[in-house]
Amino acid sequence: MKRKLIAAIGVACMAASIASCGSGSGSGSGKSTSAKSITVWLTVDAQNNWPELVKSADAALKKSHPGVTVKHEYYSWGDKNTKLDAVLATDKAPDVVEMGNTEMLPYSIKGAFAELDTSKFDNSSAWLDGLKGSVSYNGKVYGVPYYAAARVAVWRKDVAAAAGVTSTPKTYSELTADLDKIQSKNGSKFNAWYQPSRDWYTGMSFVADAGGAIATESGGKFTASLSSAASVKGLTEFKSVVTKYMHGDLTKDEADRYIIFGQGKSAMMYGASWEGPAAADPKIDKTGGKLKANLVQFVLPGPSGKAMPVFLGGSDLAVPVKSKAQDLATEWINDFTGTASQKVLISKGNLPNNTTQLATLKSDPATAVTATAAESSWFIPTAPGWGTVEKQAILQDMLQAIATGKKSVQQAAKDADAAINKVINTA
C-alpha cells in the first residue's frame, strides 16, 4: 500500500528534543522495569479489519506480565504523523507506533526510534527485503515489519480475448505482443496499459529490473545514479510503454488509477493488489458490471526476463526512544507480528512480513500472484535527505518530462541526478 513520506521539516522540529534523550538502546534497556502500562498507536486499519489480533496481543502481554494494561489510540494515515511529531517532543510519546514503510527513514535518521534487537522477534532472519530495508538505517534496526502489499498486473480477460489473447503473458515479449494486439483492436484512444507517467513506483521498477538504481552508496555518501547506463535503459523502456499504450493524461499520478480503470477504457494496469478489486466495486465500475468477472491478476514479467521487481508497500511498528516501557513494547510487538499473528493478517488479505510464510501462499490460487510478485522487490535509498527528494517530486517530474517528450531520457535523468545530489545527503 502506498504511504506518503512525511515532510522533512516536521521531523526537524522535534530533533532537538529527541537528541537530548540519546539514541536509546532499545529492547533490553531496562526502561520497563517499573512500567505498569503501555500505549500503542495503530491506524484504523487494525481497528476496523483485525481487532481480534489486537486483543490477542494484549492478552499475551498481560499473561506474561500480570497487572500490566495496554492502552490503544487509533489514527488515520493523514492525522497520525502530525500528532506523533507533537508528542515526540514531550514525555507523552507512545510506546509502540505504526508507521508506513516509507515513513520510517526520516524518524530513524533523527533518532526518534529506539534501536531494536532482532533476535527478539519471530522470523526476523526472513523478513521481506523491501520491509527489512524500511526499518534499517546505518546497519541498525529501528522497527519491525508488520505486513506487506505487493504490486501486480491486472487486466480484463474479455478485452484480451476479443483481441485474440486467451492467456496471461509469462514473458515481457509476450506481454508487449499481447498489448499490441489489444491496442490495435481498440484504437488509439484506448489504453492497452493505463500507466500514469508520474507513478514513480512503476518507473523505478523498470530501473531496478534493468540493474539500475535511484542512488548508490559508498562510504556513507549517496550519489544519484539515474543517468547510469542501466538506469537509462530502464527509463527508456518505461517511456516505450507509456508512448505505445498510455493514451490518457500524461501529467497524472497513480492516485485515481483504479477509478479511471473502472471507466472501462483500459485493458491493463499495474498497481497494488487491492486496485483491481476496488475498480470492480459497483460504485466505481462504469462498464455495466463487466469488471468483476473479467479481471485477472498476474505477475508482471520484466524486460530482464525475470519478474518485475516491485516496491513493497506496507506497515512497520516502532518503539519511540522516549518510551519508558521499551521491553514491554518489544514483547507486545512480537506478539502482534509473530508467526501466529501473521496467519491472521494473511487471512485478511495481507502478505506476511517474512519469506517463510510467504512461500506457503504460492500454492494457493487466491494468493499465488501477490506472493510471487513480492519475492522480488526494491526499496528507496536509506539516505538522510530522502525525505526532501520525495517532497520535491524529483522522480515524478523526471518521469513526466520523459513521457511528454519535454526532455530526452538522458537529459531528464541527468537533471534528476543533479537535483537529487543537492539534497540526498543532508538531513
UniProtKB/TrEMBL annotation:
Keyword Signal: yes
Example GO biological process: maltodextrin transmembrane transport
Leader sequence residues: 1-19
Alphabetically ordered keywords of this record: Signal, Transport
Record's keyword annotation contains Nuclease: no
Gene Ontology molecular function terms on file: maltose binding
Family: Belongs to the bacterial solute-binding protein 1 family.
Name this polypeptide is given: Extracellular solute-binding protein
